[in-house]
Amino acid sequence: MNEVVTSNSIQSRRILVIDDEEANLLLLRTLLEREGYANVRYLSDPTKAVEELIDFEPHLILLDLMMPQLDGYQLLEAFRRQASPDRFLPVLVLTADKTIEARRRALALGAKDFLSKPFDVIEIGLRIANLLETQILYERLEVRRSSDRE
Q1: d(C-alpha 20, C-alpha 14), whole Å
Q2: Given 3-state DSSP classes, what are the helix, strand and coil percentages for the chain, each rounded to the nearest 5?
Q3: In what order do the strands lie in the sheet with 15-18?
Q4: 41 CB contacts (<8 Å, ≥6 apart)?
């Protein structure tokens, strides 16, 4: 039973974008709409991110690191505390911080991918699709595992 992951199933996934800069949110909105993603929420206030995570249950999070009040590192820690152990929730970090320390720290805290701003719009589109495809395949695997246990 090898089902192909279709572009429609990828585009129907829920995406949460967290960035305090309105210009970045506008750029990501334009990119995601062009790629056919319709189920996207945009958040400029990082203090509302955990609440949005619980309410929206995204399949992917696009996260800035450098934000006031709560930075992306603190949010990665909070997301990890909220996450169900059997759920795969990829986080793609998008940041202007190009240091190896930022990259290592974000990945160590659970980010699944990392891009430095300014980013290539084609590359980010491909990375988003790849992470969502992986997330879909993980869900399918979990469904099979649970049916095998029954």
Answers
A1: 20
A2: 50, 15, 35
A3: 40-43, 15-18, 60-63, 91-95, 113-116
A4: 14, 15, 16, 17, 52, 56, 58
Domains and CATH numbers, the chain: 7-149 (3.40.50.2300)
Q: For 88-134, what is each residue's pLDDT tens digit?
A: 999 999 999 999 999 999 999 999 999 998 889 999 999 999 999 99
Which H or E run includes 95? strand 91-95
In this structure, are residues 132 and 16 in contact, taking their beta carbons and an 8 Å threshold?
A: no
Dump pLDDT digits (tens) for 9-40.
999 999 999 999 999 999 999 999 999 999 99
Q: In terms of Cα–Cα distance, which of 116, 69, 71 is closest to 93? A: 116
Please name the residue that has the structure tokens 């829920």. Answer: 14
**pLDDT tens string 50-93:** 999 999 999 999 999 999 999 999 999 999 998 887 889 999 99
